[in-house]
Structures are given as structure tokens and as C-alpha cells.
Design goal:
By secondary structure, the protein is an alpha+beta fold. It is 56% helix and 19% strand. The chain contains three helices and two strands. It has a two-stranded antiparallel ribbon. Helix 2 packs across helix 3. The longest helix has 22 residues, at 6-27. The chain starts with 5 loop residues before the first helix and ends with a helix.
């Protein structure tokens, strides 16, 4: 069985996450991020960067309340 080089993994992951953050900020320069993270499955065989902005949350909240008629404050809190 191969041994994982933890330092190389850490260095690579940090570099990739920094690049993802820079890319997200570049694509959404006027937006206010409230979350940024890494989603992984239990075995880490699937990794994905995830991020959320206040502006994106407002847009999705509006779609939900238009469709469901729920209270905007409650819906926004539920989506967050």
C-alpha cells in the first residue's frame, strides 16, 4: 500500500484552495462572501470547493418566496 505524503498533500490543497478563492473573488468582485469551504465525501474520493455570497442568497431567496409564498426572513434563514 502506498503511503500518502501528508506535507505534499497539505501544500497542494492549500495552493488549490487559494487559487479557487482568487478565482471566485475575481468572478464575483462586488459580492460579499459569507462562506468558503471544501466539501468532501467520507472517503475523500470527491472534493469540491463551495462558497456562498449574500447576493446569491438574496437571489435564491427571492425565487423560493415567489414559488412558495413563504416569509422572506424565514426562507433566507433556512437557506443560509
Amino acid at each position: 500500500m502506498r503511503v500518502i505524503d501528508r506535507e505534499a498533500l497539505k501544500t497542494t490543497m492549500l495552493a488549490e484552495l487559494r487559487a479557487a478563492w482568487a478565482s471566485l473573488r475575481g468572478r464575483h468582485p462586488g459580492e460579499r462572501f459569507y462562506s468558503f469551504g471544501l466539501y468532501a465525501t467520507d472517503l475523500a474520493d470527491y472534493l469540491m470547493v463551495t462558497a456562498s455570497t449574500e447576493e446569491g442568497l438574496s437571489e435564491v431567496t427571492q425565487r423560493y418566496i415567489t414559488r412558495t409564498g413563504r416569509d422572506a426572513t424565514v426562507q433566507r434563514a433556512a437557506l443560509r
